[in-house]
Amino acid sequence: MVLTLSKMVVSFCFTVLPEIIRLIVLAIFVSWKSYRLVRSNYKYMAMINKKSSKFICRKNPDSEFQECAICLSEFVEGEKGRELECKHLFHRHCVEKWLQEYKATCPLCRCSIVSEESLAEYRRVKNEQNDSIIEKELALILLSVLHGGSCRHGF
Ligand SMILES: [Zn+2]
Ligand SMILES: [Zn+2]
Tens of pLDDT along 80-125? Predict the structure, then answer.
């Protein structure tokens, strides 16, 4: 009985404990990465907000801009739009996607909205998040811990 207990303690220290520590370290790493992504997103959107303003599309036959130059669809009343510093108008989601994934400049006049470095930095953090090797490893460890748990239950 004592032997079984000490064996259990030894096996706990040498097999379960390192797994738990690894799990905790990975969990901290993953949350730190998500925090960085959220912060980078927030910072980048703040820069876009500084150089543009949001608006809701209203029918205005006198307006020079009747359609969004990114998706080439006409502005429909009530749609969310964004006006860049250069006075060019786009759908909000179209121009945000453009500035986040393609270029740091206005699609029409190519004036700079955010700096190239900010775009590069934003995309770097985003891509880091996409290669989810760490997350996969975390899932594998979680699985093995769960599996180990059910085995011990069988004893
Ligand atoms: Zn559009
Ligand atoms: Zn422009």
Answer: 999 999 999 999 999 999 999 999 999 999 999 999 999 999 999 9
What does the buried/exposed string (b/e) look like for 112-151 if buried means 16 or more CB atoms within 10 Å of the residue's CB?
Answer: ebbeeebbeebeebeeebeeeeeeeebeebeeeeeeeeee
Predicted confidence (pLDDT) per residue in 123-136, tens digit: 999 888 777 676 77
The pair of structure tokens assigned to 132 is: 């989810």
CATH topology of domain 52-113: Herpes Virus-1 (3.30.40)
What separation in Å is there between the alpha carbon of 27 and the centre of ligand 1? 39
- Ligand 1 centroid–CA 48 distance in Å is 17
| Cα-to-centroid distance, 81 and ligand 1 (Å) | 8
From the list 4, 1, 7, 19, the residue with the least C-alpha distance to 149 is: 19
**Residue extents of the structural domains in the chain:** 1-49+133-155, 52-113
List helix spans (H) across 58-102. Answer: 92-101
SS3 category, 24: helix
3-class secondary structure, 48: helix
- How many whole angstroms from 115 Cα to the centroid of ligand 2? 15
Ligand 2 centroid vs 112 CA: distance in angstroms?
9
